[in-house]
Amino acid sequence: GIQVEQSPPDLILQEGANSTLRCNFSDSVNNLQWFHQNPWGQLINLFYIPSGTKQNGRLSATTVATERYSLLYISSSQTTDSGVYFCAVVNSGNTPLVFGKGTRLSVIA
Amino acid sequence: NAGVTQTPKFQVLKTGQSMTLQCAQDMNHNSMYWYRQDPGMGLRLIYYSASEGTTDKGEVPNGYNVSRLNKREFSLRLESAAPSQTSVYFCASSASGVNSPLHFGNGTRLTVT
Q: Fewer CB within 10 Å, N side or C side of chain A?
């Protein structure tokens, strides 16, 4: 099946810094989603982004499906950005989402 | 809107006991899912229901059964709990299959002793 690799596995930032999280996948995808799991365990859908670029406040995401990667940008990070960021992809048809193992982000004040 | 609601939030079982995890969504979504999350393993799909009246196995279905009771509700049953089923369980829903955004409930933390 499709492999989803996220990097880096862990990231520590000073508040106010910018960061880029990467998601590589081993095959073509029909769609890609980014999620944030906060320190209390809640999973929030950030982006549904099969291709192109989307922005939501300080967060933006770009998916280049032909090159098999997606990037999540966090600008002016805040302590509330801490948690684990997951990307998940659909390989083909109606096969279920496959999740990467996540990037754990810690933002320090 | 409540979104996706899971009950209970926490549960402790002894090996061999049974229980049902409940999930309901109020977004009129067609598709519902059950995932488990274990340290270092990410999220793994147990079962899903693409639409009312259908259910399918995911990556890790052994030891579980599901029921899509109606469009709103999708339950997960452990018939004979094992310590390997200690995990955090998440229910999720999407409007229409895998090509629409996925929305999660807050999870159920299950410990099997």
A: C
